[in-house]
Amino acid sequence: MKKWYAVIGDPISHSLSPYMHDHWFEKHGIDASYIPVHVEPKQLEQALRSMKLLGASGFNITLPHKQAAIPLLDELDETARIMNAVNTVALENGRYRGFNTDGDGFVRSLLSYPVDKDRALLVIGAGGAARGIVFALSRAGFTDITITNRTFRRAQELADETGSKAIVMADAEAHLSEFATIVQTTSVGLTEEALPLSLTHLGSGSVVADIIYNPLETPFLKEAKAKGCLVLNGVGMFVNQGAIAFEKWTGIRPDTEEMIQLITEKLGGNYVNR
Ligand code: ATR
């Protein structure tokens, strides 16, 4: 019987997940389809019950439901518990189990670049996205993580929880050249021409990542590139979080590099093979 999967969110019409998963299903000869479902917050509980009733084999959860869905699922994986947010649900023995593949998706994307896990890494931001990423970086064996955030207290709390260091923005700016890897997790650059921190002291040898993928090149990445750094945008994280979900559903590891190219072109960019 044909299987079906979905992504639920509000809004949902611009999601690239249906394109990505349908492409992979087709490529691997899997008789399944993936549909976007618009669910408003007040309908979430009813929607999740309906998913089970109608036999969804799995689904993704996007904004604004990633936290609210938690008590409505049957089981929670460690990744979702740590982040207090779910982005992927898989049907296991008739029960819906929630995962969070965002942090690991980011790390997989980062690891396709020449990064050294033992050299200093700076995370800018201490919100939900940063949380998933810092935990995933630690799990992956990064040993020297420093967090900076506009609201220092949040950076300190996340650092305490993950055995990392926290520094105020001004110190991060002054010591930027000491970080081999820099990861931008805030929403700055999404809608405005602004930087989360000054890049004046950025050296040319760092790998600089932004988790934003639309625009493909934030002002932050543009400036880092102009300074000679190797930059990566959030397309790789988006594709890899989807690939990890796909693996949970099908057991198949899809071609992420091809998808990064397709999504980049869909967003009007030019794919550069490294
Ligand atoms: P997300 O789940 O996307 O991480 P969040 O939990 O609301 O969203 O966190 C947003 C992050 O972006 C925070 O680190 C936030 O800094 P504060 O903790 O000081 O709020 C950061 N952020 C948002 N707007 C910012 C701005 N204009 N300048 C600097 N940091 C900003």
Architecture overview:
- With 274 residues, the protein is α/β, with parallel strands linked by helices.
- It folds into two domains: 3-100 and 236-266, Leucine Dehydrogenase, chain A, domain 1 (Rossmann fold, 3-Layer(aba) Sandwich); 104-233, NAD(P)-binding Rossmann-like Domain (Rossmann fold, 3-Layer(aba) Sandwich).
- Helices cover 36% and strands 19% of the residues.
- The protein contains ten helices and twelve strands.
- The protein has helices at 17-27, 44-53, 78-83, 102-110, 128-139, 152-162, 169-174, 219-226, 235-250, 256-266; strands spanning 3-9, 32-38, 58-61, 75-76, 88-92, 95-99, 121-124, 145-148, 165-167, 181-184, 207-210, 230-232.
- A six-stranded mixed beta sheet has the order 2-1-3-5-6-4.
- Helix 6 (152-162) links the parallel strand 8 (145-148) and strand 9 (165-167).
- Helix 1 (17-27) packs across helix 9, helix 4 crosses helix 9 (235-250) and helix 9 crosses helix 10 (256-266).
- The longest helix has 16 residues, at 235-250.
- It is globular and about 60 Å long.
- The structure holds 2'-monophosphoadenosine-5'-diphosphate (ATR).
- 2'-monophosphoadenosine-5'-diphosphate (ATR) binds at residues 125-130, 149-151, 154, 185-188, 196.
Number of strands: 12
Terminal Cα span: 40 Å
Instruction: Identify the overall geometry.
Output: globular
CATH fold field value of the largest domain:
Rossmann fold
Chain-averaged pLDDT: 97
Low-confidence stretches: none
| Total tally of structural domains | 2
**What are the bound molecules?**
2'-monophosphoadenosine-5'-diphosphate
Task: Please name the fourth-level CATH homologous superfamily of the largest domain.
Answer: NAD(P)-binding Rossmann-like Domain
User: Which CATH architecture of the largest domain?
Assistant: 3-Layer(aba) Sandwich
Helix and strand composition category: alpha/beta
Radius of gyration: 19 Å
Largest sheet: 6 strands, mixed
- What's the CATH class of the largest domain, please? Alpha Beta
N to C succession of SSEs: EHEHEEHEEHEHEHEHEEHEHH
Helicity level = 25-40%
Strand residue content: 15-25%
